[in-house]
Write a structure and sequence with these properties.
Blueprint lengths: L1 E3 L7 E11 L4 E3 L1 E4 L6 E4 L1 E3 L4 E10 L6 E8 L2 E9 L4 E16 L5 E12 L11 E13 L4
Parallel strand pairs: 4-11, 6-12, 9-11
Antiparallel strand pairs: 1-5, 2-10, 3-9, 5-7, 7-10, 8-9, 11-12
């Protein structure tokens, strides 16, 4: 059985602003929550120690972030951390298009017990002040699962 949080209802959003200026660092944390949408993270409710399992999640990709999204994954004991990053397209104009892409990571826990998988990324919006400014801030989404003893 997989535990799933509410799914994104929007498959693609074309922003009305047309073309925007892009630039910045080569990579930056990916956006996993945009405005009022909720992030979707899917993983099994339980797994066996030593056996791989798949975690799937969604990220928002804009015309300014390019096609490349790389991910840092770290597993220590019964704690796993997934840090998706988006690539910057570089300076200059780019399409103001926002789409949702599905990503997967294969993890494995070696110890039985309760485990935690964290998705560490960014949340953007909604507007937070009377002038309509939107802020981007870090977010950590945690999901728990049970790791059963290894099969004998």
């Amino acid at each position: 059985m997989a535990a799933t949080v509410p799914r994104f209802r929007v498959l693609s959003l074309v922003l009305a602003s047309g073309v925007s200026a892009c630039g910045g660092r080569p990579t930056e944390p990916a956006i996993v929550v945009f405005r009022s949408d909720t992030a979707e993270v899917t993983l099994p409710e339980q797994v066996r120690a030593g056996e791989p399992f798949v975690v799937s999640y969604s990220v928002f990709v804009s015309g300014c972030s390019g096609d490349t999204v790389r991910t840092g994954v770290r597993v220590r004991g019964r704690t796993a951390e997934i840090r998706p990053r988006r690539g910057a397209a570089g300076p200059g104009p780019c399409p103001a298009v926002l789409s949702i892409e599905r990503r997967t990571e294969t993890l494995r826990f070696e110890e039985p017990g309760e485990a935690v998988v964290s998705l560490v990324a960014l949340r953007e919006g909604p507007p937070e002040d009377s002038a309509g400014h939107t802020y981007t801030r870090p977010i950590r989404l945690e999901r728990r699962l049970r790791v059963l003893p290894a099969a004998r």
